[in-house]
Hints:
Elements: E1 10-17, E2 22-28, H1 30-38, H2 44-51, H3 60-69, H4 82-85, E3 112-114, E4 145-147, E5 175-178, E6 183-185, H5 188-197, E7 206-213, H6 215-227, H7 231-236
Antiparallel strand pairs: 1-2, 1-7, 2-5, 3-4, 5-6
Protein name: DUF674 domain-containing protein
InterPro entries: DUF674
Amino acid sequence: xATTAVAATVSLKLLVDTKGQRVLxxxxxxxxxxxxxxxxxxxxxxxxxxxxxxAMVGSLGNLYxxxxxxxxxxxxxxxxxxxxxxxKYSPSSATNVPLLLPTIRSSTKPRIYHCSICRYSSxxxxxxxxxxxxxxPTCSRAMNSRVTLVNPPNKASTSSSSANxxxxxxxxxxYTIMDDLTVTPMSTISSxxxxxxxxxxxxxALEEKVVNVGMKxxxxxxxxxxxxxxxxxxxxxxxxxGKKRCR
Length: 247
């Protein structure tokens, strides 16, 4: 993954209903919210590889396995299985996002080619391909001269410090993450409203718990987000660890 490792772990504060054995919500900073939002950018094939086919709920694991096992006689000649099984993941906006999931890199790097006489003809320079057997539309020669791809420099902005933070959300506020991963900016009024909405009657049964989230927890969060509406409870309350909750 084309992410920049910011920290091995990030922390968040949970508000736990000890009587109901559930996480009501979590308080977290920019780093954890960036990690959660970054999940939306993961290609399905990458998610399956991270969780392993056997751990997938539903039929996506079987679909992935079918692509792996289907004989070459049934695959189109120019089809690269890695396009489906190991999709490329390189969002430019993912810099400075906490690296809480294992890095998975594609086994093949993108290759771009141009016409073999590109240097002599300006018209030939207009065309590029990812297949070295392609014929140049201008001169009909093979487009088999490889082009070196250069990564663009990070865009710097001096207008504000937040513009250079990277990630997806601003770091000037604390965020509330509900058990079902609904994310909102935190405020005292919203916290009181949430307790009322969650039907919390015994305030003395509430307990704060600070947890650290590393790669192990990151994988659990990814998996739980695909199958549960009580993600934080499933991941961080040990007594619920083996139980799938879907409401």
